[in-house]
Amino acid sequence: MIEIQNASFRYANSDSGVLDEITLHIKGGECVLLCGKSGCGKTTFTRLINGLIPHYYEGEMSGNVTVSGLDVTKTELYETARLVGSVFQNPRSQFFCVDTTSEIAFGCENLGLPVSEVESRIQKSANELDMVELLGRNIFKLSGGEKQKVACASVSAVQPEVFVLDEPTSNLDIDAIEDLKRTLLLWKSQGKTIIIAEHRLYWLKEICDRVIYMDKGKISFDISMCDFTAFSDEKIRSLGLRTLCSDHLRIAAKIPVAETMELQNYHFSYQQKDALCIDSLALPVGGVIAVIGHNGAGKSTFSRCLCGLEKKFKGKVSFDGVQYTRKTMLKKCYMVMQDVNHQLFCESVEDEVCLGMDEDNEKDVSGILSGLGLAELSERHPMSLSGGQKQRVAIASAILAGKEILIFDEPTSGLDFEHMEQTARLLSSFAGRKTLFVITHDPELIVRCCTHILHLEEGTVLEQYPLTNENKARFTGFFKV
Amino acid sequence: MRGSFLQVSTEHRGLVFDPRTKLLLLITMSTFVLGGIAGEKLSFLLPCFCVLPFVLLLTARKYKTAALYFILYTGSYLLNLLATPHLTGFPAFLVLGCAGILTRFMPSMMLAVYVVSSMTVSEFTAAMQRLHLSEKIIIPMSVMFRFFPTVADEFSSINAAMKMRGIAFGGKNAGKMLEYRLIPLMTCTVKIGDELSAAALTRGLGGTVKRTNVCKIGFHAQDVIAILFCAGCFGFLILDVAGVL
């Protein structure tokens, strides 16, 4: 089905993501998992198959790539599109239309299929993927999981032979991953060939037949899933991969926390729809609190209210005998957003961290920068940094601004093991000094750094407990790992 | 609710016009109200034009926007009418300027809001194809439509980030508000644009086959009325220019 011979590629103006002499044969109907550390060339590899390399991304390319007899390197992209369908990482940037039905129709329309055929294909893929209720909706108002479903349906409607998925779960919760798993099993049962590049591995155990591990642009091993699952936990870790199974989750020792802060009257609604409904809630000061729950449980509303970003929000927070209103919370809290690009404004890292700084902190600038490993980067433009470095710049600016509560929105989405561990270490280092809220779907991150779990569902607190070995079952039960 | 008024909700679309009719209305409106091409003899048309966006916004259930338009327009109209005779010098100039700009720009702008907020991207592409425009024009324009809600989304995230950093009007960094907003906005939109193009290409956009479009558009009674209205206006204009009236 897919034949790759001595394929090498190097992006123009960049040293990362190179491929080095890849030779590979993938049979029809196979389901292949591509894994490896960040920057090992997984994404580049997927682009080789869907033809984005060399047609869209420029660089030096050599070797041959054929999909079902078609030479992808020489075929125009719109021809390749009939054979290869792609699902990408970021649901917000893979939609061409604003409403779901036209989006599913889009690929078929491009093929010039007759209208009646397009309509029947829309119905067929919507039925197969169990998403009929999502037809005719505004894409911008869907959750991440629903968006990824629409993306799958729109690729499915074109009925390609090969599906290429590039980190499809980085924005998904557990249920959405289950949905995606069902979709993949359906495609597999239809005899399609699936290539999936992914960091989270546990959900792919029953789907993929073959595992290809890449390192620095080369294939380091290519084995069956059976052999791969037999790998020991230590081996998986030494390869820089995420865990395959929950038994390996070990809860790290935590600092005990005594003081609490009290949240009162946390009620909020969007256009008559209740999004948050908490009368009072006591939370540990200085804890690292994991905020978990399904998509739409009110996690982001909760964090926006806590930060004081919602103007109509009336709730209060009291600790140390002082009551804080929305406006004062805005001064005390800082949220590190999932897309950290939204919060970097200045021309150099130093300007960035000094913007909005407390004057008393002036002396600490260099200390905090070097503490976060940013000292050598202080003259660089924040936008030229890597994702993890940007995250640390945002944290440094929050600390210098004297913020006491830091909120992290999905800090490890799409990170490999090594980077996830780095983030975990960074978050643990604040335990006891700042109060941290971590909104996440990543159980591995939680066991490494969090002290408490706050489980929200339907806008209310389902349960709240300190994360200890006794409570482990409650926590792993939610993550179904 | 976060987001923008430019997002199309398929549930409340109001009086359904063909996209081509909407564009014709927009052109007529800009020619007569914004362009001010109507002379003395055609001034009887102006009230019709000014009421039109109000009615259309109401049918699309955009009550807030409609009310805002009504208040601003009548306000500036009355101000113009009542205050100018009593004012001289700089205040007169100021009032006349503001009220004049508002009365001239508001109707066309509000109609544009109605058009953009009630038209889906696929309706727009379908209409453009029926008008036999080249794909080279249609595709960039439809991407532009797709981009408004994205930019609005990004913008609201950036605003939230700025609030948390204490950058606001009246703060010590007020002078740099624009710069602080534009830098992240540009970085994010460029990245999204890049990913969006890649995604569209892998789905076969830009092929040599003629694209089909599943979106059903067509002229109905309301379209005929609107088109006759526009044609009438231009008819009057021609008669006026020819000196018949």
Automatic annotation (TrEMBL), chain A:
<feature type="domain" description="ABC transporter">
    <location>
        <begin position="2"/>
        <end position="241"/>
    </location>
</feature>
<dbReference type="InterPro" id="IPR003439">
    <property type="entry name" value="ABC_transporter-like_ATP-bd"/>
</dbReference>
<dbReference type="GO" id="GO:0043190">
    <property type="term" value="C:ATP-binding cassette (ABC) transporter complex"/>
</dbReference>
<dbReference type="GO" id="GO:0016887">
    <property type="term" value="F:ATP hydrolysis activity"/>
</dbReference>
<dbReference type="InterPro" id="IPR050095">
    <property type="entry name" value="ECF_ABC_transporter_ATP-bd"/>
</dbReference>
<dbReference type="InterPro" id="IPR027417">
    <property type="entry name" value="P-loop_NTPase"/>
</dbReference>
<feature type="domain" description="ABC transporter">
    <location>
        <begin position="261"/>
        <end position="481"/>
    </location>
</feature>
<dbReference type="InterPro" id="IPR003593">
    <property type="entry name" value="AAA+_ATPase"/>
</dbReference>
<comment type="function">
    <text>Probably part of an ABC transporter complex. Responsible for energy coupling to the transport system.</text>
</comment>
<dbReference type="GO" id="GO:0042626">
    <property type="term" value="F:ATPase-coupled transmembrane transporter activity"/>
</dbReference>
<keyword id="KW-0547">Nucleotide-binding</keyword>
<keyword id="KW-0677">Repeat</keyword>
<keyword id="KW-1278">Translocase</keyword>
<dbReference type="InterPro" id="IPR015856">
    <property type="entry name" value="ABC_transpr_CbiO/EcfA_su"/>
</dbReference>
<keyword id="KW-0813">Transport</keyword>
<dbReference type="InterPro" id="IPR017871">
    <property type="entry name" value="ABC_transporter-like_CS"/>
</dbReference>
<protein>
    <submittedName>
        <fullName>ABC transporter ATP-binding protein</fullName>
    </submittedName>
</protein>
<keyword id="KW-0472">Membrane</keyword>
<keyword id="KW-1003">Cell membrane</keyword>
<dbReference type="Pfam" id="PF00005">
    <property type="entry name" value="ABC_tran"/>
</dbReference>
<keyword id="KW-0067">ATP-binding</keyword>
<dbReference type="GO" id="GO:0005524">
    <property type="term" value="F:ATP binding"/>
</dbReference>
Automatic annotation (TrEMBL), chain B:
<keyword id="KW-1133">Transmembrane helix</keyword>
<feature type="transmembrane region" description="Helical">
    <location>
        <begin position="21"/>
        <end position="38"/>
    </location>
</feature>
<dbReference type="Pfam" id="PF02361">
    <property type="entry name" value="CbiQ"/>
</dbReference>
<dbReference type="InterPro" id="IPR003339">
    <property type="entry name" value="ABC/ECF_trnsptr_transmembrane"/>
</dbReference>
<keyword id="KW-0812">Transmembrane</keyword>
<feature type="transmembrane region" description="Helical">
    <location>
        <begin position="67"/>
        <end position="87"/>
    </location>
</feature>
<keyword id="KW-1003">Cell membrane</keyword>
<feature type="transmembrane region" description="Helical">
    <location>
        <begin position="224"/>
        <end position="244"/>
    </location>
</feature>
<feature type="transmembrane region" description="Helical">
    <location>
        <begin position="93"/>
        <end position="116"/>
    </location>
</feature>
<protein>
    <submittedName>
        <fullName>Energy-coupling factor transporter transmembrane protein EcfT</fullName>
    </submittedName>
</protein>
<keyword id="KW-0472">Membrane</keyword>
<feature type="transmembrane region" description="Helical">
    <location>
        <begin position="44"/>
        <end position="60"/>
    </location>
</feature>
<dbReference type="InterPro" id="IPR051611">
    <property type="entry name" value="ECF_transporter_component"/>
</dbReference>
<dbReference type="GO" id="GO:0005886">
    <property type="term" value="C:plasma membrane"/>
</dbReference>
